[in-house]
Design brief:
It is built from 3 helices and no strands. By secondary structure, it is an all-alpha fold. The protein has a single domain (2-67), classed as Helix Hairpins (Orthogonal Bundle). α2 runs antiparallel to α3. The radius of gyration is 18 Å and the shape is elongated. It starts with a helix and ends in a 16-residue tail after the last helix. The relative contact order is 0.12.
Length: 83
């Protein structure tokens, strides 16, 4: 996790941010870190959680834009193309 600790959260993929967040939660739940480090990784975890939420909202907005017409009705029932 040493490299991820210094990674810019805003540049991380959803999957990478979620994986690091899961690691942080695990460490905090185990209680194997001292108070100062707990605070630091908790703050990082909060930033990761916010980033994941933002990425999910962006993805949902894209899907809604692609799947609905101007009136809010579904455009089609075909699967979305891979990008």
């Amino acid at each position: 996790m040493a490299n991820a600790k210094h990674a810019d959260v805003t540049e991380m993929s959803y999957e990478a941010a979620l994986q690091e967040l899961e690691q942080i939660v695990g460490r905090l739940e185990r209680g194997d870190v001292d108070l100062e480090e707990s605070i630091a990784i908790f703050e990082r975890g909060a930033a990761l959680r916010n980033h994941c939420g933002d990425r999910l909202r962006q993805a949902e907005a894209k899907v809604e834009k692609l799947a609905l017409d101007a009136n809010g009705a579904p455009k089609s029932t075909e699967p979305m193309p891979d990008q």
